[in-house]
Amino acid sequence: MHKKAIILDLDNTIYSVQSLGDELFSCLFDLILKDGNHNEEIDTIREDLMRRPFQIVAGDFHFSKELTEKGITLLKELTVQGKIKPFDDYQFVRDIPLDKFLVTTGFLKLQQSKVEGMRLHRDFTEIHIVDPSTSDLTKRDVFADILARHGYAKEEVLVVGDDPASELKAAQELGMDAVLYDHFQLQAEHTTLPRIADFTQLSQFL
To answer: What angle in degrees, to the nearest 10, is found between the helix axes of 65-76 and 108-117?
Structure first.
């Protein structure tokens, strides 16, 4: 192996948001419908919220300031109760003999509850939750900090995630290798980065 460390995203990389999203976000969908200004777009909004942070979706669909603030207030207190099932192929990641870092964007309580629900603390050297509602930090900032504190050269760390516009873009901007994890094979046209649908395909990049 040429890599010394791997950085992973959480949502739709370690587990499927869709597997718990409809139930978890039902109160948020009700809030958006009650607002009444986005009913015709609700199906698209629902799909987007399964893949991207609320603040970005709210901006893209021009939510009012009031609706955005109500959504943030709701989501700040939202948590997942009980266990969450990771993708079956995540076991391969657990067995990789490298330093592993989890870097995820989202609301602190919600992301922490997901980490606890999958018992991920045992798998990672460090876990970083980037909460846009309380901090201006970005994933790029966290990646750069990991490189600096641990003395990794940029070519010694691989970033793996499902979002070409988030963690993969941050990796590219820092000159790090990145791989798109596309478990449901939905994003082939969205990036020129190497793409895998199963973590067992990751060996060739390590």
So the answer is: 40
Residue type for position 18? Q
**Consecutive H or E run containing 161:** strand 157-161
Residues 117-129 as b or e (16 or more Cβ within 10 Å = b) = bbebeebbebbbb
> Distance between CA 177 and CA 175 in Å, rounded?
7
Question: What are the pLDDT digits (tens) for 112-142?
Answer: 999 999 999 999 999 999 999 899 999 999 9
| Chain centroid, CA 198 distance in Å | 17
pTM: 0.92
C-alpha–C-alpha distance, residues 189 and 46, integer Å: 21
Is there a contact between 94 and 119 (Cβ–Cβ < 8 Å)?
Answer: no
Q: Which CA distances in Å does 142 have to 5, 57, 156, 157, 198? A: 14, 22, 16, 13, 25
d(CA 170, CA 134): 20
Tally the residues of the chain: 206
* Cα 104 → chain centroid: 5
